Amino acid sequence: MSTERTSPIDSATGAVGDGLDYVRTKLEVFEGDRLGQIGLAILVTFLLIGIFARPYTIEFLDLTIPGLTPHDPGERAVGGRLESPSADHPLGTTDMGRDVLSQLIAGTRVTLIVGSLAAFMAVFIGTNVGLVSAYFGGWVDDVLMRITDIVYGVPFLPFAIVLVAILGSSLVNIIVAIVLILWRSTARVIRSQVLSHKQRPYVESAQAIGASHTRIMYRHILPNVLPLTFLYAAFAVGWAVIAEASLSFLGFGDPNMLSWGEMIYNVYTANAIREAWWWVFPPGIAIMLFVMSVFFIGRTLEEVVNPELRHQK
Amino acid sequence: MGLRAYVARRILQLIVTFWAFFTLLFVLFRMMPGDPTSMFIMDGMTPEQREQRIAELGLDQPLYVQYVEYARQLLTGDFGQSFIYRDPVIDIIVVRFMNTIVLMGTALVIAYLIGITFGAIMGWWRDSRFERGGIVVTLIARSSPEFWVGIVLLSVFAFWLGWFPSSGMRTTGGELGGGFVARYGSADFLRHLFLPALTGAIVYLATPTLLMRSTMLDVLNADFIEIKKAEGLPERTVLYKHAARNSILPIVTVMAIATGAAMGGSVVIETVFNWPGMGREMVNAVNNNDYPLAMAAFFLMGSVVIIMNFIADLTYVYLDPRVEYE
Amino acid sequence: MVEDNTSRRRVLKGAGVAGATGLVTSFAGCLGDDDPDVEGADELDEEVPEIHLVAPTAGTNPFRNELASIIADNWEEIGFEVDLEELEFGAHVDKAVVQQDFDASLLGWGGTPERIDPHTFIYDMHHSNNTAEGGRNTPGYENDEYDELAELQVTQVDEDERQQTVYDAQEIIAEDQPRTYIANEGGYHPYASARVTDVDPTLGEGLNSFWNMISATPTDDDTVRFGYPSEIISLNPMQDLATPDRQFVRLIYDQLYRIDEDGFPSPWLATDDPEIEDDGMTYTLEIRDGVTFHDGEDLTVEDVEFTYEMYADSPTYSDLVDVIDEIDTSGNEITFHLEEQYAPFTANVLGQVYIFPEHIWGDVDPDDLVDFEDENWTGSGPFEFRDWERQAELQLEAFDDHFETPNADTFIRIPGSDTSTLVNSLESGQIDMVGAVPQPTAVDRVRDDDELDLADFDAVGYAMVEYNTRREPLDDRHARRALSYGVPKEEYVEFIRDGMGTVTHTTISEHNEFWHNPDVEEFYEDLEAAQQELADGGYGWDDDGRLHYGADQ
User: Fold this and answer.
1) What are C98-144's pLDDT values in tens digits?
2) The pLDDT of residue C7
3) Which of A32, B140, C284, C466 has the most CB atoms around it within 10 Å of its CB?
4) Is C82 in the same domain as C70?
5) In angstroms, what separates the C-alpha of A162 from chain B's closest C-alpha?
6) Same domain membership, residue C546 and residue C429
7) Across chain A, what does the average pLDDT equal?
8) Domain total in chain C
9) What's the family (chain B) (predicted)?
């Protein structure tokens, strides 16, 4: 590997800054793209719900912004056992008399945290692995790609279950488990993209003027593969959310953080799927809508990455 | 580098990959809290019996000794004995593995058959209402977690309409064992298979559909299509031959990955439908600290994916001579 | 105070997510943190260490999981700091019972038939001999006065004398509270009344009982399909077995005595109650005539003698027959000479040893017993083995030559991934009985279904909080008693379990009528009493309501 290094954090922030510029200039792709617009709208809605889910207290202003949840989502017996929707409880209550709507709203936050953090970390790792692997080639490439092979060999859910059993079921550990698996696809795709860029004249001329490896990788090549990174980030958000929901559904979720997956797990263990449709469907549909929104956005980004798709229109 | 040297090197790498994979699993499982006696303690195992059992299982040995011993065993094709069941792991796993393969294999085959056809039509009728609707439907299917699809299907077809059984792999009480056809060919089995396989198919449908569509678009845009058309070949023939040829590579690659995902995802479907498969057995084994059984299950599942990837790589080289043996 | 930060988990649940519990707010509310109604010590020493409460995950036990968060809330309310950790069953047992790395642990003790005799609950669980890692005295409770009683009851063959000793013992532990005895978790086992009749749920086991399995009668065909939420491990009685395994092993293999529906050992392969000599160390009984094994061979007194010798040599179960010094046979009679008096001998030894055919197991080396595969699992029990595919089904058929022929010709055991799937299968007609307690919602649904019904049963075992008396502040009786006042037993039974089960205050269930002492000290949820208890013990509170040791303590 190169002996010259710039701090990885510098390059990371650089990458993010570039990325933001990029997004700003490219946001126009959403114009005229119905699906993308719908996706954005849904995502922004969830974002707002997530942010304002619970009350905030701003101490120095002595001000409390009320939360969106009508009740404390964890409080037992705010209503009767398994009440169907009513004015008091628009989405009914759970078997322990908790308010479903409040749980749904509170669960948005977990989804947002898992989705954004896991996707960012997974894509960050994946992009770097792909970049380094393709740029240096040789044994570096061999080692990194074999590691990727192994990670591909690890079945995700069982692995996450084992990891959570070892580390304890907290949201952080669940995110770690997701990231450890999710980076693999980004790594492969970025690698193959970088491989083709490596041969191009601009890289050769950079090498000719004596630019460092780090500089070539992060200043010259990275901006060209960033669109692909963003595309994979969008998909990663979706996969991460599905992964968290599946883990929670199997009972390995964070017991202190109520997520949508865990809500369904609770209906399932309460054996109330048949009668409590108001408790089953909202979280399921929420997961679907959320993941759908990022996929719609991803599809729009795909057209940025692959302009040919756009020209066909 | 020649083809042969390339293949030789890949095989070598494959062996190293397997070794690293195995080591990773070993370390992972030894870090799990608890030991295989935990589940008996509340049922009356005394501390003396417990120590004796731990010694008998070799768990009091230093880790490296256990590691070498287990590796030696595995090299001779022996997965050892289940700590809990005390039966050879292989006996327990083979049946379960087949059940999972039949379920997920059916799901994948359905998903790929429908997906490829559907995707090709979508590409062919680009910019039509059909294409746009198709994309939305595909993306929605892809956005649904397996357990959610399973629960919805179960609610509608098993609980509400009562058309299909809600759980299990066959009606109980019949002859057990029997050959492959007897086990997996009966109408009763197919009835039980329908909902779980459909669940899997819906979830895995999106990838081949979208892939096939974009391949189709690529082919339609390619210059050589115009040339061939100019040569007077019928459009459909051109399309069929080239679309098929161009789609094999990505489909094969994606299928290797999808198999892995399906193996891991089987846990959820098996739980929802109470299917006696590998995924459930694996989760049980993990919960019971039955290391040999859990490791063998992981190892087999992982091996399927690693080997599928390996084959995909070789197919790639074989089918597309332009690929350098890098 | 050194704390392992990585293993700590916030009880934010208490502060924000779970909130104050609906039913206890009435009087929890008047105990504001800043203003304890009870005056504690004037001069304070350091803070009382945080309590590390280990509890099951919602997946392992949804009821107890729910209870744990209320307990944590209450304890914080009276000034403790609580660190609630939720674990899967295996990890929980490992941490609490084996490693003993806990302050308080919410677990349950099962009430299998052999535990109806009070020995397990009195001696094994509370005598100071059993405090080793993995021992049943998990709290590490040591009380000389109690130990004497626990040892005395073993020797008392006279039941009334023994009863008095067991009563006295219960009084001592009720005062000391090494555990908070919460509730006997009885409940309902659902079954399809349209497809099966004559179900016979018994004390502690419900539909899992032996008597139910031989009594259940299918109405339209000849098969009973029984669902249970986990697979059994083995049918080899010499293996380490868990309760669900024993429930099927005992269908295939017979014992000399079986625990009857009322919890007492009654003659099975033996013709009558054993004759016990006055020293209480010699038991003589006669073996039934004309009993055969499933393969047609006669079951003789030699088989019985062989079995007890095999147990003595086996690595897994030699403990069970340790107390036997010598065995004599004469004709159809067999005599056991004990090394010392052992009152529960009939229930816990003669009632638990399965009789093996010598012609099959005779040549097996003791070390190979656990791995021995008798493909047909030949026993002499009312059911014989037919076939088994793990995770799918276990098929048994009635053994027509048995003296108690079961009512179902075929008995199938179907493991499910959880109780919910089993209840679903029951409702859709794929199984006939479920040996597990469903959630209240499913109970209601079953109750409303014309084809289904509920078999209710009382429990011998109980849910409990165990306190690690090896650690501060749980070495102090006042602290434990105060914590016990923080456990909402009634809310647990009435609300969380929707009325299933009964509150308890002692180690012997009230349903075990003969041995249960109804007059022990009772601990209901009462946070004020908890604070009074702490004040009496010399503790005090700081301005934030946090509990401190008093300077005089």
Assistant:
1) 889 999 999 998 878 878 889 989 998 999 998 988 888 999 999 99
2) 31
3) C466
4) yes
5) 7
6) no
7) 81
8) 3
9) Belongs to the binding-protein-dependent transport system permease family.
| Window 243-272 of A, Cβ < 8 Å to B | 245-246, 249-250, 261, 264, 268
Sequence-distant contacts of A50-59: CB under 8 A, at least 24 apart: A50/A108, A50/A109, A50/A111, A50/A112, A53/A105, A53/A106, A53/A108, A53/A109, A54/A106, A54/A109
A284 contacts on B by Cβ (under 8 Å) = 144, 148, 151-152
Distance from CA of A6 to the nearest CA of B (A): 29
Assign residue C468 the CATH number of its domain.
Answer: 3.10.105
Inspect the interface and report whether the beta carbons of A155 and B144 lie closer than 8 Å: no
Q: How confident is the model at residue A94 (pLDDT cuts 50, 70, 90)?
A: confident
Please, are residues C90 and C75 in contact by the beta-carbon 8 Å criterion? no
C392 with C486, same domain: the answer is no
Task: Among B33, B95, B169, select the one facing C94 at the smallest CB separation.
Answer: B33
Cβ-Cβ contacts under 8 Å, A72 against chain C: 16-17, 19
Residues C260, C368, single domain; the answer is: yes
pLDDT band with cut points at 50, 70 and 90 for residue B61: confident
pTM, whole model, 2 decimals?
Answer: 0.82
C3 domain residue, yes or no: no
CB contact under 8 A, B176 and C389: yes
Q: What CATH number corresponds to the domain at position C355?
A: 3.90.76.10
pLDDT value at B321 more than 60: no
Q: Is A138 on the interface with B (CB under 8 A)?
A: no
Work out the average pLDDT over A24-43. Answer: 75
CA distances from B312 to A295, B250, C369, C379 (A): 27, 9, 48, 54
* Full residue range of the structural domain in which residue C368 is found: 255-374
Position A311 scores a pLDDT of 42
Helix (H) or strand (E) holding B283: helix B278-287
Of C325, C342, C374, the domain-final residue: C374
**Helices A138-153 & B3-30, crossing angle to 10 degrees?**
50
Domain boundary among C427, C454, C481: C454
**Distance between CA atoms of residues C255 and C308, nearest Å:** 11
Given its phi and psi angles, is residue C520 left (phi above 0), alpha (psi -120 to 50 degrees) or beta?
beta
Q: Is residue C57 part of a domain?
A: yes
Distance CA B206, CA B119 (A): 9
Note whether A159 contacts B142, CB cutoff 8 Å: no
Domain assignments of chain B as residue spans, ordered by start? 3-75, 97-319
Residues of C whose CB is below 8 A from B85:
233-234, 390
Give the closest-approach CA distance of C161 to chain A in angstroms.
Answer: 46
Could you report the per-residue pLDDT of A172-227, keeping only the tens digit for each? 999 999 999 899 888 988 888 888 888 888 888 888 888 888 888 888 888 888 87
At C547, which helix (H) or strand (E)?
strand C547-550
Q: Tokens 């300077």 — which residue? A: C551
Q: Is A168's CB within 8 Å of C12's CB?
A: no
C402-420 pLDDT per residue, tens: 999 999 999 999 998 788 8
Give a yes or no: residue C14 inside a domain: no
Q: What is the mean pLDDT of residues C149-161?
A: 90
Q: In terms of domains, do C289 and C316 share one? A: yes
Indicate whether this complex's ipTM tops 0.90: no
Residue to test with chain A: of C8, C17, C26, C101, most A Cβ within 10 A: C17
Residue A50's pLDDT is: 85
Q: How many CB pairs under 8 A join A and C?
A: 91
Domain co-membership, C307 together with C361: yes
C10 lies in a domain?
Answer: no
Poorest-confidence range of A67-71, C480-484, C524-528?
A67-71
- Edge-to-edge strands of the sheet including C282-286? C275-276, C282-286, C333-338, C324-330
DSSP 3-state of B140: helix
Task: Tell me: do C297 and C399 sit in the same domain.
Answer: no
